[in-house]
Amino acid sequence: MTAEPTTASEPTPTAAPALPSDFIRDIVQQHVAENRYPAGIVTRFPPEPNGYLHIGHAKSICLNFGIALENGGRCHLRMDDTNPAKEDIEYVESITADVRWLIAGWADSILGLKPRGALPSPVADSPRPDLLASPAPVAANADHAATEPFFASDYFEALYGYAEQLITCGKAYVCDLTPAETEAYRGSPDTPGKNSPFRDRPVAESLDLFRRMRAGEFPDAARTLRAKIDMASPNIWLRDPLLYRIRHVAHHHAGDGWPIYPLYDFAHCLSDYLEGITHSICTLEFEVHRPLYDWLLESLDLPRALPRQYEFAKLNLAYTIVSKRKLMQLVQENHVTGWDDPRLPTLSGIRRRGVPASALRAFVTGVGVTKFDSLTELAVYENAVRDSLNTVAHRRLAVLRPLKLVLTNIAPGETIDCTAGNLPADPAAGARTLGLTREVFIETEDFAEVPPPKYFRLKPGGDVRLKYACIIKCDELVKDAAGNLVEIRCTADLSTRAGQANCDRKVKGTIHWVSAATAIEAEVRLYDRLFTKAEPDADGDFKSHLNPRSLEVLTAKLEPSLATATSADRFQFERLGYFTPDAKDSAPGRPVFNRTITLKDTWSAK
RNA sequence: UGCCCGAUGGUGUAAUGGUAGCACGAACGACUCUGACUCGUUCUGUCUAGGUUCGACUCCUAGUCGGGCAGCCA
Length: 606
Description:
The protein is built from 15 helices and 25 strands. It is an alpha/beta fold. The strands form six sheets. A seven-stranded mixed β-sheet has the order 10-23-24-25-21-22-11. Strands 19-16-17-18-12-15-20 form a seven-stranded mixed β-sheet, with no helix packed on it. Strands 4-5-6-7 form a four-stranded antiparallel β-sheet. α10 packs across α11 (about 290-300).
């Protein structure tokens, strides 16, 4: 091959990964091009702190933070905490930690691409000028917003003011109907509702009543504040929707000063407005709320640009459920060990299982953003996890189900050093030394006394390579009185070690092993999908489809270098999968490893 | 039988009136001291019926199928 410098004078295309594209990003792009939001693009991720975040939220987080990052904008993590009865500070903390984990380091990689817009300028009347005033770099800003969440409950006072404004201009009224009456008056999807008898109550009376609601004069559910729209609207959310309800409960963030709390529809659009959100992106079930979102904002006298709502389809992943209510059941009924059980699709569980945040991001980005209610195959997720781990996880040897093997031509006490690269594809990742000894453990399934067709592993009279060591030949089986195999006796061909005369000798199979003399023991937890059906709740009975074999606990033999591993480490146990020490249960001297995912197996399935 | 939304290979997604492409998956093959990775080849698609157009995945009409909406939840 001649070294023709054909490309020397051509500009080397810096293979920048393409920015994701979808119908929402297209809209944002157009707005950027039109300079519709001169102050910049601002999005938000608004979970209610009533449960743990899950893989579905990851899609929303990546969409919202991604759009902000790509456009030099901002994304606010906002607790949508308007219903204190269901919420708890525990969830505020877990959500904050999970979001921070998911986006950590992301800005750096995405900012390597060219940001498409200018940095937003401060929003003058923002309730959080501390956050918004400093034009920090986007990367820092993104992490900061995730670390320091916004709270809808911080806006209760401002929201209350908007409510009074709505009453004053005749667009809201205090209603004394009971909950049951309210429901009855609402009608049904195909029959119009009826006007509340309190609908035309004088403004002054509604205002007085609303102030007394706030003062705590009335018991729970005695009255509500409602928007005055159209009880006959084909859209149920326009049939005089409730804006405020009376609840004499303390709030985990706002304290105990509020006997009334705003409902989602009222709080959300105005929280978006207060934070200067430009694109309020939510899932499809809120599509029918959009007219109300717009009605509320347009009914008030608001000086700044109004946010607009856009909807996309939430993520559905095969063999998993993400409903907070159902996850809660699994946790409370002890089908799993907690919200961070590695079998759960919660971000805490996924993290504990050992999945890198970058893998999750790649997965949800690859799935795309549409309005089609799809079901994503688990293989797509698994591919993203393997793909991410493959290049970074150092290789190690471990034996899950040990079978004793004696190398009869190695003397007791003798050790033969073998070098094993940490990342065979990348010598810079270094290597460690494995000591081959007379007694080793191999995987039980790597030996077959009666091998099936095309069996590459060890069999009577056959030979196989011990990874990083040498080729061995099976001479003899030792069985106990009951006929159970207790030991295999082999001869090691030491001339086939790396650098030796016959190192290039080929055999069909290569198996992993650990030295019986130096192996450490560890608990290893193997996970399988939590459910046996692709759509566990299709028949409304997800608990009957729990996989009884979703967790298998073994005592494994590991190569000694694994003794000092921490939960920040990720390994590939060769031929077995990717593993990480469990962040909760692993301790020095008592290691516990989680299997993040198996390696792809194109043989045993046949 | 109200209103809103959607429909492209097995799965997910692109093509924005002009060559139906990508990824996952599957099959086969090459390579291999991981039956992994990598590489190569192959496989399968525009819901139906009309219409507009030189030309339709794209626009229009009707239908079919699927999803969402009747919490003082979000």
